[in-house]
């Protein structure tokens, strides 16, 4: 027995067997049930979505004789058993005239076709003309068809199909009911392939079906043909490795491995994945395209998790990966990827272009260059090893320097150059470098302990002018100066002042509001923390209550940044977030900032209204003060 390919064997024979295209199916079924039939239908869409299949089903609906018992009328559910239905399924129904317009473009062919329109059907109820790829007809052929297409005999129906409706004359389009068939989404293709292979008894890997669904590009017929090829390639089974080798496409798992390395900030693993990819001889430009597509899906997963495209069947994995990135990192990586794609034409080779693009993504992260012995790790070691000294700097007066031990001159230098915890955090690297160089010089010369005057004079005589302006950047980081951060450097922490609800040294919500600006947070981390209320502090872990509207932006990197800031502030803690509705009785740092800004604005407006010069202008010229343009300055706060 000859083998029948899956695309023909599983071709739908009724509307209810049709996969997808529910909008077209509904319109045609209702028209058939109500007897509201048009004389010409136009089916448009890409290859393999069911245009010809729909036309043949419609032809059976028009000519079904209900199991041969005579004329039972038009139906939307053809029996499939009568002579007409069987003849149409087998392609031998004389009243279904199928024409390939691509091979019969001449006007003579069209006129010959139309000469038989006037004759009644031989076998069925209607004579059906199915013209495939109708856009290939010549202009003269369309002109010959127009009159008949507009007013055909009552026993004739025209069913036109095309992949390019833009090439059809407007006069033809206006004479037809047009139905646009949609692309088949990969989910629908995989669902149908799962059913077909189950019925056929063919073993398969689900991941292999997703590769086939992606490669089909919306065409169910192409998906079935590729499945036939995969079964032959895999000796009766559809396996992931076989399908990937057959298609010659990039294995999506390699791209996800690159994204994993980006999430871990692991440069060594990133380059190792590229080296492994190069052994397969891929198109590195396609690799970068696929990587940027994944970054786009990660950004969508952070904002609207349920809207993530599932074309690869990895929606859950994408949602998990999205939580390991910050939103600014994903946006930066995407922009660098797009720019790197355009720069590939100027690179010496595509592999180096891909590697440089990936390295650029990590090099320009807001957190710094991820080198094994460079910025991120030394900063963490300095934070952990000097936590006690920084806490002493934050809470001890300058006079404590006299009690410093002889072999450790570094703390006095840090104390002079960093009067506040925020300044210590923001300028940790330059201060540490100067302090270490001074320490090396002093240890080589075996100098006696420095006095405060000597430290100050040494700082003034230093050839590098950077340390002098170090105490000044704090007002630049906070345009609206708050009175709270000022006493932080010398007296007890602000967070225990006026706090009776928490034990001494622990943080309560009032303390969280008081110390927020002094933490020196920036970027998305500051925005996220500003929408939080302090839930609890047990001396080891601080729990922050997060506004549910900001939950999509939460990531582990923010926990680490806030924990480092609190450690620099003198309160080493772990950070945990809980997503819950905020208490209306408490302010978040953002709400507090907005309230204070409104108060300063109101005060500035009041001062201007009471200014004698302003009053004179109003009286003399009828001037009006535009309150929205008033911007309060620190001097306006009294």
Automatic annotation (TrEMBL):
Residues 465-485 have a biased composition (Acidic residues). Residues 37-183 form the AAA+ ATPase domain. Residues 384-402, 433-448 have a biased composition (Polar residues). It catalyses: DNA(n) + a 2'-deoxyribonucleoside 5'-triphosphate = DNA(n+1) + diphosphate. GO terms for molecular function: DNA-directed DNA polymerase activity. InterPro entries: AAA+_ATPase (IPR003593), DNA_pol3_clamp-load_cplx_C (IPR008921), DNA_pol_III_gamma-3 (IPR022754), DNA_pol_III_sug/sutau_N (IPR012763), DNA_pol_III_tau_dom-5 (IPR021029), DNA_Rep/Repair_Clamp_Loader (IPR050238), HLD_clamp_pol_III_gamma_tau (IPR045085), P-loop_NTPase (IPR027417). Its EC number is 2.7.7.7. Keywords: ATP-binding, DNA replication, DNA-directed DNA polymerase, Metal-binding, Nucleotide-binding, Nucleotidyltransferase, Transferase, Zinc. Residues 367-496 are annotated as: Disordered. It comes from the Bacteria. DNA polymerase III is a complex, multichain enzyme responsible for most of the replicative synthesis in bacteria. This DNA polymerase also exhibits 3' to 5' exonuclease activity. DNA polymerase III contains a core (composed of alpha, epsilon and theta chains) that associates with a tau subunit. This core dimerizes to form the POLIII' complex. PolIII' associates with the gamma complex (composed of gamma, delta, delta', psi and chi chains) and with the beta chain to form the complete DNA polymerase III complex. Belongs to the DnaX/STICHEL family. This is DNA polymerase III subunit gamma/tau. It comes from Vreelandella zhaodongensis (Halomonas zhaodongensis).
């Amino acid at each position: 027995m000859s083998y029948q390919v899956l695309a023909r064997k599983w071709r739908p024979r009724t509307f209810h067997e049709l996969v997808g295209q529910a909008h077209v199916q509904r319109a045609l079924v209702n028209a058939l049930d109500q007897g509201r039939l048009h004389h010409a239908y136009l089916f448009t869409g890409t290859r393999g979505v069911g245009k010809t299949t729909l036309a043949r089903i419609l032809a059976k609906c028009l000519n079904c004789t209900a199991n041969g018992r005579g004329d039972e009328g038009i139906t939307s559910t053809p029996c499939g058993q009568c002579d007409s239905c069987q003849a149409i399924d087998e392609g031998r129904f004389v009243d279904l005239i199928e024409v390939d317009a691509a091979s019969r473009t001449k006007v003579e062919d069209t006129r010959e076709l139309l000469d038989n329109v006037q004759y009644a059907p031989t076998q069925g109820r209607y004579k059906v003309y199915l013209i495939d790829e109708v856009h290939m007809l010549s202009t003269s052929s369309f002109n010959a068809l127009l009159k008949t297409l507009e007013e055909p005999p009552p026993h004739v129906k025209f069913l036109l199909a095309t992949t390019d409706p833009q090439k059809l004359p407007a006069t033809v389009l206006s004479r037809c009911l047009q139905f646009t068939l949609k692309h088949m989404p990969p989910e629908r293709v995989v669902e149908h392939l799962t059913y077909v292979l189950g019925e056929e008894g063919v073993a398969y890997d689900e991941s292999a079906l997703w590769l086939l669904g992606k490669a089909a590009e919306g065409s169910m017929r192409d998906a079935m043909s590729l499945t036939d090829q995969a079964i032959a390639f895999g000796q009766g089974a559809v396996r992931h490795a076989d399908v990937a080798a057959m298609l010659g496409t990039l294995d999506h798992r390699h791209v996800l491995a690159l994204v994993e390395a980006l999430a871990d900030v692991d440069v060594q693993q990133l380059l190792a994945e590229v080296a492994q990819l190069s052994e397969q001889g891929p198109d590195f430009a396609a690799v970068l395209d696929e990587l940027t597509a994944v970054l786009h899906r990660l950004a969508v997963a952070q904002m609207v998790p349920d809207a993530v495209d599932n074309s690869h069947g990895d929606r859950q994995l994408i949602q998990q990966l999205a939580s390991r990135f910050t939103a600014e990192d994903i946006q930066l990586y995407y922009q660098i990827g797009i720019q790197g794609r355009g720069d590939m034409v100027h690179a010496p080779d595509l592999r180096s272009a891909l590697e440089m693009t990936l390295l650029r993504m990590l090099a320009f992260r807001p957190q710094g260059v991820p080198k094994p012995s460079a910025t991120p790790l030394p900063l963490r070691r300095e934070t952990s090893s000097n936590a006690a000294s920084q806490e002493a700097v934050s809470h001890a007066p300058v006079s404590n320097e006299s009690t410093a031990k002889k072999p450790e001159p570094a703390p006095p230098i840090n104390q002079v150059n960093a009067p506040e915890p925020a300044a210590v955090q923001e300028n940790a690297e330059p201060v540490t470098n100067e302090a270490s160089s001074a320490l090396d010089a002093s240890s080589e010369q075996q100098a006696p302990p420095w006095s405060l005057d000597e430290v100050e004079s040494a700082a003034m005589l230093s050839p590098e002018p950077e340390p002098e302006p170090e105490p000044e950047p704090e007002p630049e980081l906070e345009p609206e100066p708050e009175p709270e951060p000022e006493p932080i450097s010398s007296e007890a922490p602000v967070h225990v002042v006026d706090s009776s609800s928490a034990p001494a040294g622990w943080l309560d919500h009032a303390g969280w509001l008081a110390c927020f600006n002094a933490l020196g947070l920036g970027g998305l981390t500051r925005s996220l923390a500003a929408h939080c209320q302090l839930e609890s502090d047990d001396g080891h872990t601080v729990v922050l209550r997060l506004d549910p509207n900001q939950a999509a932006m939460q990531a582990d990197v923010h926990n680490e940044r806030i924990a480092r800031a609190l450690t620099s502030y003198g309160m080493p803690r772990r950070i945990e977030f809980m997503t819950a509705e905020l208490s209306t009785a408490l302010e978040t740092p953002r709400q507090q900032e907005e309230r204070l800004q409104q108060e300063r604005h109101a005060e500035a407006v009041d001062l201007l209204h009471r200014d004698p010069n302003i009053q004179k202008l109003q009286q003399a010229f009828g001037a009006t003060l535009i309150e929205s343009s008033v911007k309060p300055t620190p001097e306006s706060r009294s």
